[in-house]
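Incident log, support desk, overnight shift.

02:14 A customer reports that sequence design results differ from what the structure should imply. Their input is reproduced verbatim below. On-call engineer (initials T.W.) acknowledged and began investigating.
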């Protein structure tokens, strides 16, 4: 025989203790999930400059290795001056402020970017950082040495304070190791 459910049993409410436990569990989950999510967002935004500069540095070293394999000018100063391609200005001219933009057609078609086969992202894909390449060779001061500096700048939060990432490399005439990418990456205001 089925007993009828009493009116008291039908109206069972959530006890304050049960509600407090539910809020505590939800708060604990949020305390773990939100910082992890924010860290992942920041990390994903930093992939562009780190990956881009690693590729740019590797391309510059390969360019110098290829140049070293062909008959070169007779003097060490001329060989050093031609180890890396000439500098390229920041492309785009200023980093986007607080957003990512698609580059206009031909932005990465300059001679240096073409020589290094570099483009930060596939054509038509928005990106948040501007890249530059500086041939910092000083043959008059150190005749047998060439150097470069590749850097990326971004203003992810649009506050006018950019993040800066930088790698350097060198080629020294007569060094058996050949052209090298210097260890490490300079980073300033990583997350602004």
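02:41 Re-run completed on a clean worker. Output:
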């Amino acid at each position: 025989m089925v007993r009828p459910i009493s009116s008291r049993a039908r109206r069972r409410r959530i006890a304050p203790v049960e509600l407090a436990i539910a809020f505590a569990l939800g708060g604990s989950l949020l305390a773990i999930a939100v910082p992890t999510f924010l860290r992942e967002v920041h990390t994903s935004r930093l992939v562009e400059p780190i990956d881009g500069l690693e590729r740019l540095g590797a391309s510059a070293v390969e360019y110098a290795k290829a140049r070293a394999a062909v008959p070169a000018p007779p003097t060490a100063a001329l060989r050093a001056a031609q180890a890396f391609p000439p500098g390229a200005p920041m492309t785009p001219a200023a980093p986007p402020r607080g957003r990512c933009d698609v580059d206009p057609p031909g932005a990465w078609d300059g001679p240096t970017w073409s020589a290094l086969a570099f483009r930060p992202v596939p054509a038509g894909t928005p990106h948040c950082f501007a890249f530059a390449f500086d041939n910092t060779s000083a043959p008059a001061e150190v005749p047998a040495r060439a150097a470069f500096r590749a850097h990326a700048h971004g203003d992810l939060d649009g506050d006018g304070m950019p993040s800066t990432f930088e790698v350097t490399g060198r080629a020294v005439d007569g060094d058996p190791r050949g052209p090298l990418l210097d260890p490490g990456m300079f980073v300033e205001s990583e997350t602004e």
